Amino acid sequence: MRGVRKAFNVGLPIETEVLHGIDLDVVPGEFCAVMGPSGSGKSTLLNIIGLLDRPTAGSLCICGEETVGLDDRAITRLRGHSIGFVFQYHNLLTGFTALENVMMPMIGSAGFIDQGMAARASELLDSVGLSKWRGNLATNLSGGQQQRVAVARALAMNPRLLLADEPTGNLDTKAADAVFALLHEANRKEGMAVLFVTHNATLAQRCDRIVQVVDGRLLNPA
Ligand SMILES: Nc1ncnc2c1ncn2[C@@H]1O[C@H](COP(=O)(O)OP(=O)(O)OP(=O)(O)O)[C@@H](O)[C@H]1O
After folding, report:
1. CB of 41 closer than 6 A to ligand 1?
2. DSSP-assigned letter for residue 157
3. Which pLDDT band holds residue 88 (cuts at 50, 70, 90)?
4. What is the C-alpha separation between 17 and 55, in angstroms, rounded?
5. Any idea where the ABC transporter domain is (predicted)?
């Protein structure tokens, strides 16, 4: 991204600019921690990179494609195929099983269900150590298990970029380490770039690079 700005409430007396011209390159296979004080703009930055929100100004390329100017349909397609998300609160559909939750992105993308999706979701649940729990409703899993399902779901479409916004913020140390290890494995094995927002300096030190956001600016740009 180059010169990315984000303002909220544009045109109103309460208009506030939160990101003030961000330059950032993330290369394939890179594992970046994103740190900074509360309210500095980390989630806003991630939401823009994840195409969940649009910048007010600047340029944003995802997998080589300039996104500014794309219509909503193209944005949705690019997001669905290229980007996986893990949030602090897992956002699983609690009335569905672990397996069904992991299948959701595949169903959403294809518009239908087939056996191959269940097989792929099952493999992903194996990879996060939850094969025995695949038939459990999400609501009956522990917080750490739910977050591991959320990681499996984020990997379902084999994205090139994985965005994780404080995925360990709500977990005890052991569960946090387990979730971090899964992100790290996805990064090393699949070569996906990861942006990992965290307040945990120990985990951040284990990433390739730390991007510091302070007052809507990067301390160490590009
Ligand atoms: N939709 C919105 N409308 C208005 N202001 C917003 C909106 N979303 C975020 N902000 C403001 O943008 C600023 C940055 O918020 P953001 O959530 O990006 O910070 P953060 O660094 O992720 O914080 P934390 O570490 O506490 O999660 C805050 O002042 C917040 O109030």
Report:
1. yes
2. T
3. confident
4. 11
5. 1-222
CB 139 within 8 A of CB 97: no
Q: Backbone phi, then psi, for 176, in 5-degree steps?
A: -65, -45
Tokens of 166: 């404080």
Answer CATH for 2-218 from 3.40.640.10, 3.30.1360.40, 3.40.190.10, 3.40.50.300: 3.40.50.300
Give the Cα separation of 128 and 125 in Å (integer).
Answer: 5
Closest approach atom of ligand 1 to CA 46: 18
Pick from 47, 149, 135: nearest CA to 90: 149
Summarize pLDDT for 211-222 with one digit per residue, the tens.
999 999 999 765
**pTM exceeds 0.95:** no
Best residue among 40, 166, 200 to mutate for probing ligand 1's pocket (most ligand atoms within 8 Å of CB) is 40
ipTM confidence? 0.97
